[in-house]
Amino acid sequence: MSVMDDWVTAACAELGLDPVQVPVPTVLDLARDVAHQVLRPGAPVTAYLLGLAVGGGADLAGAAARLRDLAATWPVELGAEGPGDNPPA
Hints:
This protein is mainly α and 89 residues long. The chain is 61% helix and 0% strand.
């Protein structure tokens, strides 16, 4: 078992969730795409939004694909920093 598996199992136990229902690769892939194509702090927020959508009945694969497509087409202005992009040290 990996540290990620251990963490997901423990976090699910804490929240009363079934770890089998946690799509770790899907969430990590989406977070990576948002972090690299939009902004780093957007990754955990997007993962949360995906969870809200799926919890509300959205299809996981479809919702994740829509968000990945949105991130892929997000206009990036090189050198521009958005709010929260560089939190204080």
